[in-house]
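Checklist before submission:
- one chain only
- standard amino acids only
- sequence pasted in full

Submission:
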Amino acid sequence: MAQSANQRVIVLTDIEADPDDTQSLVRFLLYANEIDIQGLIATTSCWMQNEIHPESIKRVLAAYEKVQPNLTKHSKGYPKAGELEALIKNGQSSYGMAAVGEAKDSEGSEWIIKKLEENDERPLWISIWGGSNTLAQALHKIQRTRNKTEVKSLVSKLRVYTISDQDDSGIWIRNTFPDLFYIVSPGDDYGSATWTGIHTYFEGIDNTSISNNWLAENIQQGHGPLGAVYPDVAWGMEGDTPAFLSLIPNGLNDPEHPDWGGWGGRYELYKPDFNDKDGSSIVKPAPETRPIWTNAVDQYIPYVHNAYGRTIKQADQSQKNDKATIYRWRDEFQNDFAARLDWTIQDYEDCNHAPIPILSHSEILQVQSGDWVHLDALNTTDPDGDSFSFLWFHYPEASTYKKRINLGAENIHKVGFRAPETKQKEIIHIILKVTDRGTPNLTAYKRVVLEVNPKS
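Returned file contents:
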């Protein structure tokens, strides 16, 4: 649902361990108007155990500084590069739990505590792209120096999304603070991780938007200084980006509800089975001792262009896996990325901007089973005057009611269907996608949550 304020975020990055951190940082800065960046902390990881590279964060910020004035032509709220540079902090230059304990505070761990203790009602997201030991040290100190009530209060404000476990401190954090909100595909088997859906090639879907040619043409070349510092893929494109994608307020994402699904994937709260097979990482896996937000499965049936009659139709093949919770939105967030790089060098009238879906009713509706439901977005607009199309669909995996609901001609501004007969209260998520015909095509969303009550 709609968010009242930008999400507060501190990034922990092992930048220079792999080019993908730099790739993710380029994208991240393009959303600095819609995410409240509160820290950029250089860390170690299992891939780079004894060094940190804050200077590489500064290098990307130097490119951002050249384009920030042009970005403000397109949207208010882009901070100046100097403001962001002041947020660069050093984590420990040692690996994992060896850097956690008495007298092992770092500039980064102290900064996390400082931001956490600020008088701000918003949660503090820790977006972990590398090792998590800087967060572990902050929590270690909080546990040692605060009373139980204070510890509980501070931990309750934290939200963590980490790209698997890239040191041995993640499992310590989860075991020591069992109430901490924590999203992770645990263990060392990266192939089983949801976040790989951002870059994995899948048969049966269009993978063009993650191709090297697409990146060269839409990101790296001819798109200004920030696009020019976006490096080639070495291991996988932007493996860290899912750790912040769901914080972007696009009408689909709701960070407090990972099970609702969004650009960063969909996750459910449970204690996963222990997987001790050898994986991609060198972090030794350990069994979870409590529920975590982790891999969930979507059955994704793509919509494809139809040459005649109704403009879209569902494809003949479906995909069913945890990665589908990310790649089902991939073309949309890739196009959004490309458009924002256009913003860095072009005037407003020469760029595309996302449409603005406007519902004629509330985003939360209460109905009785068997009632007719009418959903309408007639008043939707586009800031550039572009033509746009509608697509409504039921998202069964985000719903308690799992049987797919036929919305009829789902490609018009108004749809109607009969609420299913139920014997208990059911929750149904209906997603509206509005996509313009500008270049590149941009999509914005609305999520309608139906509370269906049985007839008394």
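Reviewer check: The radius of gyration is 22 Å.
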